[in-house]
């Protein structure tokens, strides 16, 4: 078996459900959800099942709208038109993975300019590694559903054969002796 970390749709759903319970349990009452696309879109939609708030989508990429590679994240879709919706509000920011942290930290910095009450950051997976950037001190709630070693994560929405993908997760968990959540 290869050295990738496979994650099935069922696992994503359960990770998000756990995150929703954690964030509500912490006393944070979000007004809006901001999903970083495209990896944060499906987790954001699932979280809406447990915390029913409007979702705003933003697109951040190392590739600009001109498709040229940048050495830092850049906006390819943004939410200036809803700036008023964020001012003084509790924002739940969600993405699928915190790798180098560059994307999340950039997004947090931009959202802070709208003067929200607070931003809580949720991710499915945090890779345990040295990050390129840290969060600003305004981020007091950071919830990764799972902390994992620095491996490439295979998410179900990238799978061309979802049955094979789900089976690969099952075999990975069997081999590593990890418990399915
Ligand atoms: P960053 O390095 O800024 O934390 O992550 C940038 C983006 O790279 C993430 O939003 C995600 O789309 C992608 N990425 C980073 N690590 C992985 C991974 O292990 N698997 C997948 N599928 N995407 C990843």
Question: Would you mind describing this structure in some detail?
Answer:
- By secondary structure, the protein is of the alpha/beta class.
- It has a single domain (8-147), classed as Rossmann fold.
- Helices cover 31% and strands 30% of the residues.
- It has five helices and eight strands; from the N terminus they run βαβαββαβαβββα.
- The strands form two sheets. It has a six-stranded mixed beta sheet with strand order 4-3-2-5-6-7, with helices on both faces. Strands 1-8 form a two-stranded parallel ribbon.
- Guanosine-5'-monophosphate binds next to strand 5 and helix 4.
Features:
single chain, Rossmann fold, two-stranded parallel sheet, binds guanosine-5'-monophosphate
Instruction: Give the strand order, joined by hyphens, for the main sheet.
Output: 4-3-2-5-6-7
What count of structural domains? Answer: 1
**Helix coverage percent:** 25-40%
Instruction: Tell me the strand percentage band.
Output: 25-35%
Q: Mean pLDDT, as a whole number?
A: 94
- Give the overall shape: globular
CATH domain class: Alpha Beta
- C-alpha Rg, in Å? 16 Å
Q: Major sheet, described briefly?
A: 6 strands, mixed
pLDDT < 50 stretches: none
């Amino acid at each position: 078996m290869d050295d990738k970390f496979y994650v099935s749709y069922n696992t994503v759903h359960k990770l998000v459900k756990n995150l929703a319970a954690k964030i509500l349990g912490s006393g944070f009452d979000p007004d809006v959800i901001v999903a970083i696309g495209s990896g944060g879109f499906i987790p954001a939609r699932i979280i809406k099942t447990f915390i029913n708030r409007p979702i705003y989508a933003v697109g951040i990429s190392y590739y600009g709208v001109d498709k040229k590679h940048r050495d830092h994240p850049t906006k390819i879709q943004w939410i200036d038109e809803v700036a008023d919706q964020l001012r003084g509000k509790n924002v739940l920011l969600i993405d699928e993975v915190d790798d180098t942290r560059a994307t999340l930290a950039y997004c947090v910095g931009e959202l802070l300019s709208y003067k929200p009450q607070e931003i809580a950051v949720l991710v499915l997976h945090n890779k345990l590694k040295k990050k390129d950037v840290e969060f600003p001190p305004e981020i007091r709630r950071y919830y990764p559903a799972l902390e994992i070693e620095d491996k490439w994560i295979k998410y179900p929405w990238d799978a061309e054969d979802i049955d094979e993908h789900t089976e690969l997760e099952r075999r990975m968990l069997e081999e590593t002796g990890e418990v399915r959540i």
